[in-house]
Amino acid sequence: MVRIKICGITRVEDALAAARAGADAIGLVFYPASPRAVSPTVARQIIRALPPFVTSVGLFVDASATEVHQVLAEAPLDVLQFHGNESAEFCNQFGRPYLKALRVKPGDDLNALAAQWPDASGILLDSYKDGVPGGTGEIFDWSLIPLERNWPLVLAGGLTADNVADAIARSAPWAVDVSGGVEQAKGIKNAAKINSFVQEVKRV
Ligand SMILES: O=C(O)c1ccccc1N[C@@H]1O[C@H](COP(=O)(O)O)[C@@H](O)[C@H]1O
């Protein structure tokens, strides 16, 4: 069973649509430059509306430790996702499980890179695009993903209901993560697209 995270949630109704569809986690973006960014106050409202057993994940891009602590003081996130150039030492300091995102380029030794964050709960692989830290809506070459690995893979980058079955077949991830592929506008999710995505993941 491949787990599912729906990222870039900005509204309670979208979080509930994800939960009802059968998603395991929702993602909240705390990167101010993102059109999907939420304030800690809105994040708290969304988290409080979640039914049991749906994990809340907070996404940061090279935030300071103070900024992460400020968010955590208001929004009770279950898991942190570091999508920038954060070191393992930085990621480890918050007392929360975390995902480390890597943006994949040809020639990367992904096993060696993943080993730099030995305490991560999972390694999220996303597409590399110069100057854009994530949420590109673009897939990357899944053949670059090592099938022999000792870390839980969270596959992201341009996933949609149309390509996620193929992506799973090629990479055997622990979980998949989608944002733009289930949106009707940046930061606004589409319940029908969420349902199709979740059903497609559960079908394989
Ligand atoms: O969503 C964003 O705006 C974003 C900004 C900065 C870093 C990461 C971001 N999103 C994450 O990127 C992956 C892939 O997204 P997509 O499915 O290709 O749209 C996912 O984890 C997003 O949450």
Structural class of the helix and strand makeup?
alpha/beta
Report the CATH architecture: Alpha-Beta Barrel
Shape: globular
**Structure ligands:** ligand LGQLAAA5
Strand content: 15-25%
Protein name: N-(5'-phosphoribosyl)anthranilate isomerase
Domain N-(5'phosphoribosyl) anthranilate isomerase (PRAI): 4-199
EC number: 5.3.1.24
Family: Belongs to the TrpF family.
What layout of secondary structure does this protein have?
Layout lengths: L2 E4 L5 H10 L3 E5 L10 H10 L5 E6 L4 H10 L4 E4 L5 H4 L6 E7 L5 H5 L7 E6 L25 E3 L8 H8 L3 E4 L4 E3 L2 E2 L1 H13 L1
Parallel strand pairs: 1-2, 1-8, 2-3, 3-4, 4-5, 5-6, 6-7, 7-8
Antiparallel strand pairs: 9-10
Bound molecules: the ligand O=C(O)c1ccccc1N[C@@H]1O[C@H](COP(=O)(O)O)[C@@H](O)[C@H]1O.
Organism: Halopseudomonas laoshanensis
GO molecular function, one term: phosphoribosylanthranilate isomerase activity
Pathway: Amino-acid biosynthesis; L-tryptophan biosynthesis; L-tryptophan from chorismate: step 3/5
